[in-house]
Amino acid sequence: MRDLKIAFRNLTRQKRRTILLMAAIAFGIYIITMINGFTGSFIENVSENFSNMLAGHIFIEGKEKTDSGKTLSLVRNDDILMQAIKETNTDWKYLTKRSDLSAVLIFEGEDLNQSVTGADWDVEEYFKDRIVLKEGSFADLQAEPQGIILSDKAADKLNLQIGDRMLVKCQTYTGQQNVGEFVLTAILIDSSLMGGSTAYANIDYINQLLNLQPDEYMSLGIFLNDPDTIDETADALYENLKTKVNMFERSNNEEENKILSMLKQQDEQEWTGLRFQLMTLNDIMSEVQQIVNVLNTAALIILFVLFAIIMVGVTNTFRMVLMERTKEIGTMRAVGMQKGIVRKLFLYEAFFIALLGVITGLILAGITMFILMQINWGMNTAAFILMKNGYMTFKLSVPQVLLNFVIVSALTLLAAFFPSNKAAKLQPADALRTSN
C-alpha cells in the first residue's frame, strides 16, 4: 500500500502530463468501445428486422422439378408440416404463409419490373409496424382484394396515385403467361435498402395470379416466441419431418454457406414429387455474422495501432520522468530502497494511468451511447435495418471490455518497463552526482 500511495502521489506532481497520457488512452478505449458496442447489437438488430421482413425465424419451402428441370416453389396440403410443428412442441408466436411473384407493372405506357410478396395481413399484424407508409393504409389494402403497396420510387416512376389501377403481367408457378390488375392502395417510404425492390399484396390474389390452389402457397414461416431457440427448434423439426416427407439435407459445416449449399442441392440433385427444404434465419444471417467478426477484428487491429502510437508517448514520457527524478531515485536508493521497488513504482504509475484512462474512455463511450440511443432516427432511413424500431442500440459484453482493459494495461506496462528498468539500475552515487 505504501508503494501504491507513492506511485499515485508521483502522478499528481505532474498533473498536465498525466492527464495528457490518460486522455490518449481514453480516446483509444472510447473508439474501440463504440465499435464493440455497435457490433454487439448489430447482429441482434439485423436478425430481428430480417425476421419481421421475412415473416419468421424458421422457413419451410416445398420444391418440385418439372420435366424440363425447372425447380418450382410450392407447399401443397401442409397438414404434415403442421403435425410436425405440433409433435415437436414448437413454441411459435405466428405461423405465416407467403407467396412471391415476379411481375411487370404497366400504367399509361410506363412499365416496371417488380417483385411482389403476398401475405395474410390478418396474421401479420406485427409486420405493419415495420413499414412506414407515405400515403394510404393497410386497411385499404385488406379491403381491396387486388390492392398493392408500392414504394414511393416505384409509384413515382409509373406516375401512380392512390386508387389507380395498373396492369400486371406475370407467369404462373408453372411458367404460363398470365395477366391481372392491381389497385394502388398505399405507398411506402423507400429505405433504399429493401423498399425499392419489394411490393406487398394480399396472398389470395397473388396465389390466383400464380395459379395456385386455395390450400397452396410458397413458403411457411415460423415466428418463434424465443429467437434464441432457432437452431434447437429447427433441428427437432428437421428430424421429425425426415420421417414423414422427402427433405433436402441440412449442412452441419459451420464454414459452409448454407443457403448456397441448399441451392446447389436443388440444381444438382434429382427427385420426383414434392421435396421440402428447411432453413433458418441463422442460416441467412451467417454472412452477416462474418461481417460482425470482420468488424471486431478490425476494432482489435485499430486498438493495437492506436496503442502502438500511445506506447511511444508513454515510453518518451517515462524517459523524461526518469531524467527529472534521477537525484530523487539516487536518494531513495541511498537510503536502502531496493531496485525492484524502484521498478515497481514506475510500473504502478503506468498502471494507474492505464486504469484511469480506461475508466474515462468507458464513461465517455457510455454517455455517447446513451445519447445516441435516445434519438429516433426513424424507420425511413437506409440504416433502419441496423436499428431497433428506429433507435440505435449498443451491447457490450463483459469479456470484451475486460479483454480491452488487459490489452491496454499490458501495452502501457510494456511501454513503461524499459524506462523503469533503467531507473532501477541507476547506481545511487551516480544518480546523486547528476546535474539534473
Structure description:
It contains 14 helices and 13 strands. With 436 residues, it is α+β, with helices and mostly antiparallel strands. It has two domains: 2-49 and 287-433, no CATH class; 55-285, no CATH class. A hairpin with a 2-residue loop joins strand 4 (92-107) and strand 5. The chain starts with a helix and ends with a helix.
Q: How would the blueprint of this fold be written?
A:
Layout: H1 2-13, H2 15-54, E1 58-65, E2 71-73, E3 75-76, H3 79-87, E4 92-107, E5 110-119, E6 133-136, H4 138-143, E7 147-151, H5 152-158, E8 165-171, E9 177-188, E10 198-202, H6 203-210, E11 216-217, E12 219-224, H7 230-242, H8 258-268, E13 275-280, H9 281-284, H10 286-324, H11 326-334, H12 339-373, H13 398-424, H14 428-433
By DSSP, the count of extended strands is 13
Major sheet, described briefly? 6 strands, mixed, barrel
Order of helices and strands: HHEEEHEEEHEHEEEHEEHHEHHHHHH
**Shape by Cα distribution:** elongated
**Mean pLDDT over the residues:** 81
* Terminal-residue CA separation: 29 Å
Show unreliable segments.
Answer: none
Beta-strand content bin = 15-25%
Helix content: 40-55%
Number of helices: 14
